[in-house]
Amino acid sequence: MSKTRNGNFFEDFRVGMKLRHATPRTLTEGDRSLYIGLTGSRAVLGTAETNARQLGFERRPLEDLLVFNTAFGKTVPDISLNAVANLGYAEVRFRAPVFPGDTLAVESEVIGLKENSSRKSGVVYVRSTARNQHGREVLGWIRWVMVHKRDPGAACGDALVPATQPVVPAGQLACGDYDARIAEIPSMTGVADLWDDYAVGERIDHPGAMTINDSDHSIATRLYQNTARAHFDGHAMAAGGGRRLVYGGHIISVCRALSYDGLENVLSILAINGGSHVNPTHAGDTIACATQVIDKIDLGQRHVAGLRLRTIGVKNAGTQAIAFAEPGQGRPAHPPEVVLDLDYTIAMPKRQH
Predict the structure, then answer these.
(1) Pseudo-torsion of CA 228, 230, 232, 236, nearest 10°?
(2) Cα angle vertex 115, ends 114, 121, to 5°?
(3) pLDDT at 141 over 90
(4) How many helices (H) and strands (E) in the chain?
(5) What span, in angstroms and rounded, lies between the C-alpha atoms of 284 and 214?
């Protein structure tokens, strides 16, 4: 008998396998404060109770990416403890706000598998769902992760790569109900730009940059209870000739915080349509980002509409290194300084006429 928990390796997964992840997690105001300390988040609804009440909420919700990263962390011991790297996301839907005191429980289903040609690892595709203490789904997503094999010679079944939606359709976006008070947001941010003021194709170079310290990404992965060896175990990474990787969700959170300048009046993230961690990030790297408006979306609401955005993050370079493809052109291959390419949809107030 053995109680050693070595996690799942690639050959342990089967399409259709369902996993109920331990343990449910109650999020608190302390989690919010630590998240702000790690990322510098200035999201309006998450910054002050007075902001949230003035804009029509009974209390301020937790930041979307704090919720996502916490729910993601629940899946790690079962799915990516033995990961080489997390590769990408699709169909991430934020379905309901989460408040301090809410408890999240997460389940996953394996929806695809593909062994790599080296036979040393393979890619695992999973669909995960987070629910609150009332059983309501608050978040769902697909991700794919490269996982080591325990035995390179182990036989694996036929490859199955699931089809994913390139964009979460407008009809599947859960925006919530906002009233006319939401138009008061410029009085809090000091910036008048609302949904009407953004144009498709517009580029926003965010002026800030943030250096990732060893303590930053170490504390972040602990906050999310993300126990993947690639982030935690420097000895194991050095034995393989590498260094600890910064968790990709932390890079997304940092870029979201940096993008506040230019997108001050964002209310929430409605969906992540797709995302890739293009190159690794390590402690000491400095992150900067730029955003392009891909589309403007009618959500069928009087006071709020959607913007589909593409944010590209780079390490140790200015935003001049970021190239967005022109309309109608294919996306160019990314240079080595690009670490994140994120396609997501946000909610923003419309100008009241």
Answers:
(1) 120
(2) 125
(3) yes
(4) 9, 12
(5) 7
Mean pLDDT, residues 213-234 taken together: 92
What whole-number distance in Å separates Cα of residue 61 and Cα of residue 176? 12
* Token couple for 259: 């993008």
166: pLDDT strictly greater than 90: yes
**Structural tokens at position 89:** 């996301």
Residue 85 structure tokens: 């790297």
What is the DSSP secondary structure assignment for residue 243, as one 8-state letter? -
Q: What is the pLDDT of residue 330?
A: 60
Contacts of 81 (CB under 8 A, 6+ apart): 6, 7, 8, 227, 228, 229
Which 3 state secondary structure label does DSSP give 215? helix
Per-residue confidence band for 331, with pLDDT thresholds at 50, 70 and 90:
low
Domains of the chain (ranges; CATH) run: 10-153+165-349 (3.10.129.10)
Rounded to a whole number of angstroms, the distance between the first and last alpha carbons of the chain is 70
